[in-house]
Design goal:
about 160 residues; alpha+beta; six-stranded mixed β-sheet; three-stranded antiparallel β-sheet
Length: about 160
């Protein structure tokens, strides 16, 4: 059976209208420190996390949490035998505690990443680096946010 132009356009319009229906994703409004710990353990497993080797450059006070500049660097020679495998960034109070995962290798030249993040409120930011010997190193920073991001207004 042949499809007429009118039938085709009717079908295409229906598909287009169905594509405009918003998809609602339910997430917890308030993250907890337990969610932060769970997200960290999902990355490192049961491995111990040491303090040191990692440096985070993030403003301690930000006016607007919508765009917070951040640079993370790791003390590593970045040679074939000694390099940073990955850098993972977590936060305490955003709905999703794992901000980002950055994968590096000896070809990267230096173990440093720079990005901008959103912060929902005054909170702790944690950066964890995994080295080629499968050790984990971390640093934490407290950031005070005066105008929160990642929030929705309730009418």
């Amino acid at each position: 059976m042949r499809t007429t132009r009118r039938q085709f356009l009717s079908l295409a319009g229906g598909v287009t209208a169905a594509g405009t229906i918003p998809i609602i994703t339910l997430r917890p409004l308030n993250a907890t420190p337990a969610m932060l710990n769970t997200a960290i353990r999902n990355v490192v497993g049961e491995a111990p996390i040491r303090t040191g080797k990692v440096k985070i450059d993030i403003p301690p006070l930000v006016e607007n949490g919508n765009t917070v500049p951040m640079t993370i660097s790791v003390a590593s020679p970045m040679t074939a035998d000694d390099y940073v495998k990955s850098i993972h960034v977590f936060n305490e109070k955003n709905p999703q505690p794992n901000i980002g995962n950055f994968y590096l290798g000896p070809w990267a030249g230096r173990a440093q990443i720079s990005t901008r993040i959103r912060l929902a409120d005054t909170q702790k930011v944690v950066a964890i680096a995994r080295l080629s010997d499968d050790t984990f190193w971390q640093v934490t920073a407290d950031v005070v946010v005066t105008l929160a991001a990642c929030t929705e207004e309730v009418n």
